[in-house]
Specification:
Active site: 107
Region (Disordered): 354-377
Largest sheet: 5 strands, mixed
Order of helices and strands: EHEEHHEHEEHHEHEHHHHHEHEEHEHH
Number of domains: 3
Oligomer: single chain
Number of helices: 16
CATH topology of the largest domain: Dna Ligase, domain 1
Bound molecules: magnesium ion
InterPro entries: DNA/RNA_pol_sf, DNA_pol_Y-fam_lit_finger_sf, DNA_pol_Y-fam_little_finger, DNA_polymerase-Y, DNApol_IV, Rev_trsase/Diguanyl_cyclase, UmuC
Strand content: 15-25%
Family: Belongs to the DNA polymerase type-Y family.
Distance between the termini: 35 Å
CATH class of the largest domain: Alpha Beta
Cofactor: Mg(2+)
Shape: globular
Structural class: alpha+beta
Length: 419
Amino acid sequence: MPDLGATILHADLDAFYASVEQLLDPALRGRPVAVGGGPGGGVVLAASYEAKAFGVQGGMAGWQAVRLCPRLTFVRGRFGEYQRLADAVMAVLADVTPVVERISIDEAFLDVSGAVHLFGPPDVIGALIRRRVRAEIGLPISVGAARTKHLAKIASQVAKPDGLVVVPPGSERQFLDPLPVELIWGVGPVNRRRLAERGIHTIGELARTPSSAVERILGQAVGHKLSAMAHDEDLRRVETAHRARSVGAQSALGRRSAEPAEVRAVLAHLADRVSRRLRAKDRAGRTVTVRVRFTGMRSVTRSHTLAQPVATTLTLTEVAERLVWSAIGDAPAPCEITLLAVSVSNLTAQPVIQPELDLPPPDPWRPGSATGAARRAVDGSMDAIRTRFGADAVGYLPAVMGRGTAVPDEFRELAEHEL
Ligand SMILES: [Mg+2]
């Protein structure tokens, strides 16, 4: 069988945070629920399908949401529960194939080409995943299957809520052409409006527009990328953690101007997640990369390569912070940030660290310095406590402060993972 068919799957839990709340509290089932925010203010992070029917969406102000849907119930999010249940879902996916690439808390790509002989064709595997996640965890999950990642993700969005859409090879054009352009990964309201002004509403219309024209409308980089996506040109493989050459995390922020305390809190949270994953695998990396996305999808990437590999939360936070401010400093004012991402590459096995003499000037970023050693000791204690009592048991201060009454940034995971 030379062509195994639509073997890339994108599995995405439906209205994840809200679905978890409804799972844990039966009184919320069948009712419009908003996670985060309140009638007086704050931002809604996620809405149940019952609330979406009234037009309530993530990212909306609470007062606005309650005006659309007066019966809306607001609940505070429980990130620990979301993490626990999403991890259980990922374990179901890993039962089907080891080739799973988790791209955010509640969604993942799978390459099932090695699993079709065990479980059957991709549509059967998609149905199996959906059945098991519903039966064993109690959550609705949508699955899209296609020959490329890009298309599998579009298919899962079309499948929502609680559905399965397979795009058989050969039918891609037919499937894509009538769909609205905003289903393409990365097309937000601004680009959608710009395309609409030129009469481009569907993916088919975008595909029929020469790439050079699209680049004139949206800028070269974005235009080129979206043109390729409209033609379903996407050679990316499903990257498992095993194959991964970098470890990264990102947080969408809604729109906000860059406040130092907030930037630091988000970076501390991201650095903590990345470095914890590195330490869990006994790995460390030398190159730290940040991506800052501004309004209008414009992104700036900055990296710094350290003399020695690190996996230390505080050091990674500080390097990332410096890079982010350098990126912001070069941006034309006023600047609003919509996303921050941190990744570490140039990975090696965590080397045995030789203590160094602390010669002036002290360099806390060197793992062998006295400060570097102290930082690793703190990380070691935190990892041990978390292993025993759970991820939320302890945290670095800026990351901990992000929880509390304000909008927790960890709820703002995005459905993309490129850096
Ligand atoms: Mg989802």
